[in-house]
Amino acid sequence: MPLKMGERDRCATGLEGLDTILYGGIPRSNTVLLTGSCGTGKTSLALEFLIHGAQKGENSLFVSVTENSEKLLANIIPYKFFDKSLIKSGRLVFVDLPIMYERLGMTKAELSMEEIDLLVAAISDLVTELGTKRLVIDSITSVCYKLKTSEKIRDFILKLGKSLSDLNCTTILVGEVSAESTSYSSFGVEEAIADGIVLMANMERRGDLLRTLQVIKMRGTMHSRAKYVLDLTPMGVLLVPLLKGGSTA
Amino acid sequence: MTPDQIGPQKIAAELSEMPPASAISLQMSVDNYLDVIRGVLDLFANKKGMDTIYVTATISSEAIKRVLQALDIDTSRIYFVDCISHIMMGASAAQQDDHTTLVESPTMLENLMLKVEYLIRRSQSKDKLVVIDSINSLAIHNNNWILSEFLHILVSGLRSREAFTIILSVEEHSTPEINNMVNLVCDHGIRAGKEG
């Protein structure tokens, strides 16, 4: 379907509920912060985004920071639509960032400004080389721990976002926050720079713990700002509206 | 909508007239509860060959399965969303399998909708039926506001997927508020009385 004047091309996530919330998907080449506390389904959602992309013929890259990709794949939900041939064919690629650090000689606990430039260049080169159209970095918070200062974090995310956007790559940066946090990111910087923020949370209602999802912001599109309840199933992430009659928030 | 009072044997005939995507309110007496379940499941799951998603909040899925087996009704096309076994601490008896999905509590109405959605997506059958057993049991655990909102979203979603919905209610336990809530989302009402 041709785009209307001023309308941006969409990267349909393939998650039916989320694409409805976003009026068709993430505006292509946006950098989105997918943030939430542990156990809220961030990694599962991000991975599903990549699988659907790979199935549509878009090269997809998962950069794992905290756990090695073999372990990640072993623990992932057995998606009915997941075909291992996507990995064999190179449509879906997993890279462990600690290995990249090692190869780039980034062995110190804190990265220098030069090393930040080197890391941005290395990720961008990988995206170019693989022809990546969808990228997930899980988690950006772990990368930020190596940057330490707000200035460095801002510099890293700005440069990375710009570079990936120029490469027409749609990116999800997975962020981790504590359950009590009122901020959308651990360092308070990531949320200000990202084009979009998708918040995943655990919501308690009368003793029941519900997994929720809410799009806080998304540049380049209208979107619902309502809270949705989600379930992680072998058919993928499913979403339904949060029933307001029982809402505590 | 005034429900017509008919016997359980005629329910099947009445239901079979309904077009796809219909939502039916089926009010019954405590005395003919099992007859009605048998009539509905035998007609849709077996004779019509529809995949049937049975949401049980009244008695456990294990208990219903036992009844259906005793009545020699094939349960291979019936998929249970069991909202009561877990809260009764009877989850171990009702193991989750391909035919049974547990919801932790009947208060988790969103999760109930999500499980129904999951089973609908998983189903290969063209025609699908969703049975809610029962609105009165759900009303024990939820207030009318949230229950009304739940029914509206659930039934609208099922209509858009062309699924057939039957909402069971027990006459003796119903209130005018519950009846209004059900009537608002249903196209047709059937009142199952004694045969004859």
Characterization of the model:
The complex is a heterodimer of chains A (249) and B (196). Helices cover 33% and strands 27% of the residues of chain A. Chain A is of the alpha/beta class and 249 residues long. Chain A has a single domain (10-246), classed as P-loop containing nucleotide triphosphate hydrolases (Rossmann fold, 3-Layer(aba) Sandwich), CATH 3.40.50. In chain A, helix 6 runs parallel beside helix 8 (150-166). The termini of chain A are far apart. The model of chain A has no long low-confidence stretch (mean pLDDT 92). With 196 residues, chain B is α/β, with parallel strands linked by helices. Chain B has a single domain (10-189), classed as Rossmann fold, CATH 3.40.50.300. Chain B contains seven helices and eight strands, in the order βαβαβαββαβααβαβ. The longest helix of chain B is centred in the last third of the chain and has 17 residues, at 144-160. The mean pLDDT of chain B is 87. The interface between A and B is medium-sized, with 20 and 24 residues.
Q: How would you summarize what this structure contains?
A:
The complex is a heterodimer of chains A (249) and B (196). By secondary structure, chain A is of the alpha/beta class.
Architecture blueprint of SSEs:
The complex is a heterodimer of chains A (249) and B (196).
Chain A: E1 10-11, H1 16-21, E2 26-27, E3 31-36, H2 42-55, E4 60-64, H3 69-75, H4 85-88, E5 92-96, H5 97-103, H6 113-130, E6 134-138, H7 140-145, H8 150-166, E7 170-176, H9 190-193, E8 196-205, E9 208-218, E10 227-233, E11 236-241
Parallel strand pairs in A: 3-7, 3-8, 4-5, 4-6, 6-7
Antiparallel strand pairs in A: 1-2, 8-9, 9-10, 10-11
Helix pairs in contact in A: 6-8
Chain B: E1 4-6, H1 8-16, E2 23-28, H2 33-47, E3 51-56, H3 61-70, E4 78-82, E5 100-102, H4 109-122, E6 128-133, H5 135-141, H6 144-160, E7 164-170, H7 176-185, E8 188-192
Parallel strand pairs in B: 1-8, 2-7, 2-8, 3-4, 3-6, 4-5, 6-7
